[in-house]
Batch of 2 targets.
Target 1
Amino acid sequence: MQDTNLNIQGSDLLSKSAHPIKMSGEKVNVHYGTKQALFDVDLQVNENQVTSLIGPSGCGKSTFLRCLNRMNDTIDICNVTGLIKLGDQDIYDPNIDVVELRARVGMVFQKPNPFPKSIFENVVYGPRIHGLCRTKAEMEEVVVSSLQKAGLFEEVKDRLDEPGTGLSGGQQQRLCIARAIAVSPEVILMDEPCSALDPIATAKVEELIDELRENYTIVIVTHSMQQAARVSQRTAFFHMGTLVEEGQTDQIFTNPKDQRTQDYITGRFG
Ligand SMILES: Nc1ncnc2c1ncn2[C@@H]1O[C@H](COP(=O)(O)OP(=O)(O)OP(=O)(O)O)[C@@H](O)[C@H]1O
């Protein structure tokens, strides 16, 4: 069912120039074997804003998202061409350290996927392997501050040694966000982060996304147009592997330029 009665709150009135470009894709084409999934996509992501990627199932939203931290590298048959930059850096340059890239551009998945370890270990794992903390005090500090930033600390502070998998779905997703934050990323990619959550847990994660944009750049794939309207300042509409249009979220939802966008947001397809 399509979302209707859109509630646009996330938009701000800052001009695009007030937010420098953090990441950009130019002429991005993606093939899975012989099947082409993205066609000449040009998209810029602004710093300290939330950009939503929306569009019907199979239109290429997740494929584009995964290009931004080279997660598609893990799919053998996937071939990405075009220029994708983080700041001024071509992230597909052969000299790029992909592990470091994925620390700078973190990812939160559709289904909460904590490691089968304690809450503490889930958060400290990344900073430890990246050499960001060595002493016990440093580890405690990163765990506490990451859980605080993810809005989870108060709920788990007395059970940091208990398994992350024992938390509720919404708490597990915020733990995964804390885990992403722990390595001080610049960009956080979220692939339908609320699709496995109930409405209350969803509201908490949406509130968190709104707070996080102060310090991070966020790109979110969502099927919910209401969610895109609530959390994002910019929205990109994809259809059949092409980027149809991108703009301020309120403009996309109230005054789209392309008929396909209009049809999608009014529930005519998708
Ligand atoms: N690992 C893969 N192997 C082969 N084809 C794939 C793979 N992942 C995606 N595709 C294909 O690429 C196209 C785009 O898929 P993608 O998952 O990016 O779309 P999406 O818009 O995120 O869809 P959804 O909203 O259903 O998650 C689809 O035709 C899909 O079948």
Target 2
Amino acid sequence: MTDPAITANGLRKSYGDKTVLDGVDLTVAEGTVFSLLGPNGAGKTTAVKILSTLISPAPASGEIRVGGHDLAASPHEVRAAIGVTGQFSAVDGLITGEENMLLMADLHHLPKAEGRRAAAELLERFDLTDAAKKPAHSYSGGMKRRLDIAMTLVGSPRIIFLDEPTTGLDPRSRHNMWQIVRELVTDGVTVFLTTQYLQEADELADRIAVLNDGKIVAEGTAEELKRIVPGGHVRLRFTEPTAYQGAVSALNEATPDDDALSLQIPSGGSQRELRAVLDRLDAAGIEADELTVHTPDLDDVFIALTGGATIPNQPNQPNQPNQPNQPKDAVR
Ligand SMILES: Nc1ncnc2c1ncn2[C@@H]1O[C@H](COP(=O)(O)OP(=O)(O)OP(=O)(O)O)[C@@H](O)[C@H]1O
């Protein structure tokens, strides 16, 4: 087995009296996407800054290794192995996209010809060739983000840190960015991602860690995390009061809502469980007008684990808190 791309043991950081990271352990396997989730101010950016050598951890922290190097002993080697795209763009708007890329190539001390080749290749890969000679301030938000990541890749880093790479992007640009992340991982790059969007972590991350009050409160795959919160159910809705009453009698474990003529039955949402409910309705000769399956999603996990802390915004719903029990489900 290869060594993990990133390991942190007992990562700690305080600002004055405020403890931001209180003994965080992280392991990120090579060639995977690891997503750090947490409410605003949880310390995600602080973790990224420490792991990318921008700020120092508290002396009481344990060993941190990035790209096979000890962060404290070999920060230069760590820096050579990583790329960072922060929340604030590194793009200089006054010069062209191509000039931004060449500047990065110079910073990485690439020979001129190699720098030009890398810049041209990356501009092509990120669909920026047509805009390459235009000043970057004329780029759309999505183009600037793509240029930002292209600049991060000039030095061919094996590990990249993406701190909220899609915040503020429209859905199409967000999906483009997800595709870029997937392609990077296919090429073997390790991605450490912080995001405001739970759906993004669900789409991209091999593993997700939830940070709350300076500690990792849960870690696992999206599916594993969803399994730790209860709340899966099937909801049946009727228009006919007689059919509704029949269903109430047939499904005695269901929670009825007389006003809405609906029933809620606890369920993990598997095919077998759904069939069992439908079979019991069939046996009673009842047909529901609507059947909705609600499986816990990362919103539910987030709210359950972070004690109702402000939930990060969801795509297309800027600044709108999500409710834990709103189904985002299949309706049959
Ligand atoms: N240089 C600093 N000096 C003092 N406090 C700081 C400093 N940098 C961060 N903090 C505090 O540390 C806490 C964690 O900040 P951080 O930016 O890491 O959170 P975050 O999880 O990335 O939040 P967001 O999702 O809002 O970006 C916050 O309370 C923040 O105010």
